[in-house]
Amino acid sequence: MATKKQIAEQAMRIISGGHLKPDRAIDIRELMLALDQLRDTLVKINTFENVKQGDYVVEHDYLSFHNMTTQAAGANGLIFATLPVKPLALWGGLGVYQITPAADLEDAYIIVNAGQPGLLGGTDALNRTDKVYCWVVGDTVYFKNLAASLAITATLAATSQDIDEDADYPVSPDDESILLKQLLQLFGVQDEQDHDETEDGNK
User: Fold this and answer.
1) pLDDT tens digits, residue range 26-57?
2) Which residues make beta-bridge pairs with 62?
């Protein structure tokens, strides 16, 4: 799996004709920023295509694990944990794909929509104390039936801006090729414009 920086460097070499020149007009940071935007769009489109086909999943290549620790209840009386990265806003909240105890990734907590615990309060729906429920508001996950100071793991489709440039870039090999072509289309036009000759009648 390539890193964000490796994909951007490959695009820069192609745009530069195979050589990275000291006086190149394009900054690699611009390429990486555009690459992040293209990847986030690709993840959203591919996930929505899955949903349209009745498959409510995020491709595993887009997911990454992030460890957290639950914190003591705040003023609202809820145990909570803070997400270390921002999840993508995918259909149906699929950006936060799964939350589990860190020691057992198969024991998934039940993710519900924010507001549902209040609407279902006092009913049998949330009275199963052997089940852990959680919901996300912003960058915070709130829990019902879970203690503080517990190590938990969130499986997320993280936004690309939160992925380090030297970390594995969570896309499939096929997606790497797609993203590279899209980068070249974006910056190839700019590269040609930088080398336009003055229209003075001389070739």
Assistant:
1) 889 999 999 999 999 999 999 999 999 999 99
2) none
Contact call for residues 81 and 70 (beta carbons, < 8 A): yes
Rg (CA), the chain: 22
Amino acid identity for residue 80 in this structure? F
Q: What is the dihedral of CA 45, 87, 64, 150, to 10 degrees?
A: -150
Give the pLDDT confidence of 118-148 residue by residue, as tens digits: 555 666 656 666 789 999 999 999 998 999 9
Residue 186 to residues 31, 81, 165, Cα–Cα distance (Å): 9, 39, 20
State pLDDT tens for residues 77-103.
999 999 999 999 999 999 999 999 999
Going from the C-alpha of 190 to that of each of 8, 24, 33, 187, 194, the distances in angstroms are 15, 12, 16, 5, 6
Number of Cβ within a 10 Å radius of residue 175: 20
Read off the tokens for 173: 């090999």
